[in-house]
């Protein structure tokens, strides 16, 4: 039989391995199945979370129904991948294993190499297809944007109308006790996180392009407004319930519709301009999605090593006990900085926060708290329902100033309050200790007069912590250390090499 190995591609639309397996089955008469394996080594890795697993299980249930409607079968198994393949091959000879390429963490990278070796030893043909707009091999960063654009404009893989399934019975493992077997515990975000499945993805894309997205370009930075104005496609792109190409083509179609609507007078010019800007911003971010994953594809070591090797020892000094205490305060949203704490608590509860606030959280941990990014990156990955290793690790390094080429951004938590939540709507929702703090003191609650603190029930150091560090001092120290390192000839030379390998050549239009 032909086996389609599902990984982070839990959809039936624009799924090249499924389409190719269906075509082959009809041509050669060899039946096919779709296979998803719950691998303990993957789900017990330090970046995996129960909410990720729940999203996957929801998506698999929908996909199984889609396959069954077309005569197909989805088989779930539990175990190490090559052992599962060996057992499956004893039940029914495997002719071809088809899958998408995956740019994952070190665990899945090593697993993919083992699977390739197993296929070679056992005479199984292995066919891998490009996933999204990430190229393997990538000849160069020169021309990457044009190659990406060409892939996105290309035809999507057709949804097969009928699958040829094996007549023999192939037993699937059940989901009962899965969380316990994988050691993940319960999904603590179950009531607040997004749901899995391609129907949810399609609904999000449709509502963004037709209803919610008009002000995306101007509101995406707001921790309050972004919940509605952002596309919220990120978990669906990360787990593959929608392809980047489908999102891209949907956005392009909407741009064409808007141009026609404006030409006929069906939409006002101002509305057309706002919609146009927002949808083009979304398309840019789809390009960035693949641009960052390409970095990990080209250099897997950046999951654990600084892109600019000269920064490896940048944060090596300091008291480990202080660093550990600071890390816990940051993780729990108890730093004494309202915007930091509100964003962290919102993220931990829901699995999502907008990009600007993600960047601020990492910047604060790296620069204000002076924590090595490796001490918190896996934990932070667990919090994101849309965790994508290829985006996560390059982004964490970029915000931590260890790439050698990106602008050093050290956010002012006070300014973020003033710019994005001046009346505290978002902060008061997630940090209820600050509910009665007046607006004028909200960005720096420690400046609230002591008597007023007592009256409103928010005593700094009691109900709400004092700032864990002093912003001005932390900002100055971080800048001095980073820029002193970047000024060295060795760092400058290394930065040029990093840019050649990973730097963007062209802004997406």
What characteristic shape results from the CA principal axes?
A: globular
- This entry's quaternary arrangement is single chain
Percent helix, as a range, is 40-55%
Total DSSP E strands: 5
Q: List the total number of helices.
A: 24
CATH superfamily label of the largest domain: DNA Cyclobutane Dipyrimidine Photolyase, subunit A, domain 3
Per CATH, the class of the largest domain reads Mainly Alpha
Account of the 3D structure:
It is a single chain. This protein is mostly helical. It folds into three domains: 2-131, Rossmann fold, CATH 3.40.50.620; 199-298, Serine Threonine Protein Phosphatase 5, Tetratricopeptide repeat, CATH 1.25.40; 303-502, Orthogonal Bundle (DNA Cyclobutane Dipyrimidine Photolyase, subunit A, domain 3), CATH 1.10.579. Helices cover 53% and strands 5% of the residues. The chain has 24 helices and five strands. The protein has helices at residues 16-28, 40-43, 50-69, 81-91, 106-121, 144-153, 178-182, 198-212, 216-219, 226-229, 234-239, 244-263, 269-298, 320-332, 338-350, 355-368, 377-383, 389-399, 413-420, 425-430, 439-442, 450-456, 471-486, 489-502, and strands at 2-6, 32-38, 74-78, 96-100, 125-129. The protein has a five-stranded parallel beta sheet, sandwiched between helices. β1, α1 and β2 form a beta-alpha-beta unit. α8 (198-212) runs parallel beside α12 (244-263), α12 (244-263) packs antiparallel against α13 and α13 packs across α18 (389-399). The longest helix is centred in the middle third of the chain and has 30 residues, at 269-298. It is globular, with a radius of gyration of 24 Å. The two termini are 44 Å apart. The mean pLDDT is 95.
């Amino acid at each position: 039989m032909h086996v389609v190995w599902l990984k982070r591609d839990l959809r039936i639309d624009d799924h090249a391995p499924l389409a190719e397996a269906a075509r082959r089955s009809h041509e050669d008469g060899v039946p096919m199945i779709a296979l998803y394996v719950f691998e303990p080594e993957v789900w017990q890795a330090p970046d995996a979370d129960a909410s990720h697993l729940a999203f996957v299980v929801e998506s698999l249930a929908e996909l199984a129904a889609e396959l069954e409607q077309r005569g197909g079968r989805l088989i779930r198994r539990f175990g190490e991948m090559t052992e599962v393949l060996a057992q499956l091959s004893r039940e029914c000879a495997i002719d071809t294993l088809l899958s998408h390429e995956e740019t994952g963490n070190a665990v899945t990278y090593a697993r993919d190499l083992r699977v390739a070796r197993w296929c070679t030893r056992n005479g199984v043909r292995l066919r891998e297809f490009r996933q999204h707009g990430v190229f393997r091999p990538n000849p160069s960063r020169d021309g990457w944007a044009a190659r990406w654009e060409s892939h996105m404009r290309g035809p999507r893989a057709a949804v097969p109308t009928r699958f040829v399934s094996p007549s023999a019975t192939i037993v699937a493992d059940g989901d009962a006790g899965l969380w316990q077997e994988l050691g993940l515990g319960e999904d603590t975000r179950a009531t607040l996180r997004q749901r899995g499945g391609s129907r949810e993805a399609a609904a999000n894309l449709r509502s963004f392009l037709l209803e919610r997205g008009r002000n995306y370009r101007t509101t995406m930075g707001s921790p309050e407004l972004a919940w509605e104005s952002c596309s919220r496609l990120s978990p669906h792109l990360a787990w593959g319930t929608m392809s980047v190409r489908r999102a891209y083509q949907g956005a392009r179609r909407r741009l064409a519709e808007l141009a026609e609507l404006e030409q006929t007078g069906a939409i006002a010019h101002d509305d057309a301009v706002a919609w146009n800007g927002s949808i083009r911003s979304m398309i840019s971010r789809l390009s960035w999605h693949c641009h960052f994953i390409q970095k990990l594809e080209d250099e897997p070591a950046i999951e654990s090593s600084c892109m600019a090797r000269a920064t490896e020892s940048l944060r090596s000094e300091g008291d480990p006990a202080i660093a550990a205490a600071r890390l816990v305060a940051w993780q729990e949203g108890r730093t004494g900085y309202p915007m930091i704490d509100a964003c962290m608590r919102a993220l931990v509860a829901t699995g999502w926060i907008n990009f600007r606030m993600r960047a601020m959280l990492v910047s604060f941990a790296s620069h204000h708290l002076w924590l090595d990014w490796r001490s918190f990156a896996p934990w932070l990955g667990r919090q994101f329902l849309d965790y994508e290793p290829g985006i996560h690790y390059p982004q964490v390094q970029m915000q931590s100033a260890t790439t050698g080429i990106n602008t050093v951004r050290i956010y002012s938590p006070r300014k973020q309050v003033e710019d994005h939540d001046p009346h505290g709507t978002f902060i008061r929702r997630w940090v209820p200790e600050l509910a009665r703090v007046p607006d004028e003191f909200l960005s720096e609650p420690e400046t609230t007069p002591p008597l007023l603190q007592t009256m409103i029930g928010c005593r700094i150091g009691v109900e709400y912590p004092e700032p864990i560090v002093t912003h001005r001092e932390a900002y100055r120290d971080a800048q001095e250390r980073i820029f002193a390192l970047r000024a060295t000839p060795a760092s400058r030379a290394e930065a040029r090499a990093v840019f050649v390998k990973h730097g963007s050549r062209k802004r997406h239009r």
